[in-house]
User: Fold these one by one.
Assistant:
Number 1:
Amino acid sequence: MYDLEGRFKYSFGQDIVYSPCSFTPYQDLFLIPEIHARIALLDFQKKLVCYLGENVPIVDIEGWPELPVTLIQPGKFISPHAVAVDQKRNLYVVEWMVGGRITKLLR
């Protein structure tokens, strides 16, 4: 985190996330897609709420993230890169993988 003058203030999450790609603040949460197969949800006190679609062992498979379709499972992520929220509070997760994938998580 930086202040409005560009001075470094602090960082957080090193003990919770290990491959963050971006983050989306939403209401009282940070939604953090991790390239290594999960979405981390942190509260504004910087504490872990949960992981969504966790599939961390998949990154150890040779060829990851370009895996055969037989290894792609609904509800399990391969390599999330972005997350967005619609007006109904559904989440959309964009993944970088063979063919790409957008997953809608219903509220």
Number 2:
Amino acid sequence: MLFRQDALDRIRDGRISVVFRRWERARVRAGTRLRTMIGVVEVLAVAPVKRISAADARAAGYPSATAATADLPDKAGDVYRIEVAYAGDDPRVALRAAADLPDFPALVARLDRMDATGVRGPWTRRVLAMIAARPAVRAGDLWAGLGYPDMLTFKRDVRRLKELGLTESLPVGYRLSPRGEAAWARLNPPGATP
């Protein structure tokens, strides 16, 4: 579920507590926690509605129900009313900054499991090495050199490393986070070649 930046800012400061989407079926449910550019947005309730009320339109940041309805895409599906709230910072931000690595053995075991189940064989260290060597380089310029069949598969794997706090997205490309740099240094002691 995507949000425009202005909507995210208003969700964070509490000016928006409801959003509307037109879907064939609900794509989120109550309790879903979405990671966004501003942090975590929690879905509190989801329900289809026949029409948007004036009160709900105001809760969504619109001056009227007509304006809220007009902003929905003209496509098939029901209109869903979704209650949302800002739920705090993205926990990956703190994880990325933690370079002391008290969980290093568990982290290595996790990387090894990811490598063991990868359809292209071991990939985690190759992707970390590429990002370490070429920070801020477009994903489109990285994936083919690593043997990926397409850029989307490459980005999926980078996101898996991001979940471990090892990489961070930049406006263009990626870089190793402080945690990723510390892990990479321990995986590749001085004198070792990536």
Number 3:
Amino acid sequence: MMQRFFKLFLKNEPDAHKIALLYGAIMAQARREDFFIRFGLSDDFETRFESLILHILLVMRRLGREGQAVKQSLMDFMVSDLDRTLREMGVGDVGVVKRMKYFMEGFYGRMNVYDAALGSMDKKEMLRALDRNLYSATSTDLAKLELMQDYIEMQTKALEAQPLDDIMNGIISFKSIEV
């Protein structure tokens, strides 16, 4: 009886399977080996996290206001996945809490910086954001930064061309990376 009562309020909650599909597609794109090679990124935990943030931001921007519930579920899924990953790496409860706090502060900070840069259409602002975050583990290479900026524009356009309902149902595709 009580479950039926709560289901009335949770009708708009996205299907967990669809969120898992969406997160899986984002994660797969963010971790592609050719992505790291093509853009001269170091393949380490921090840079993988930076790549995940960038790709989630692109999808969240596409979801817009209509996709608020999906965006929240996607965030929840990411937090659970990061927590699980840290535990699998042998990090204890106290360490997980500290690292999750660090990750989430970084996540929201970067989301704001990237979102502002994309919103302003200021290419220099985006180059600075990429240099400070995604490329923080490597020396600055303007050509690689500009290549990444082109990739972001390409993926933004590709996501805009996809039906919102498809994305909200976990069906998403990213443009291929030319190595």
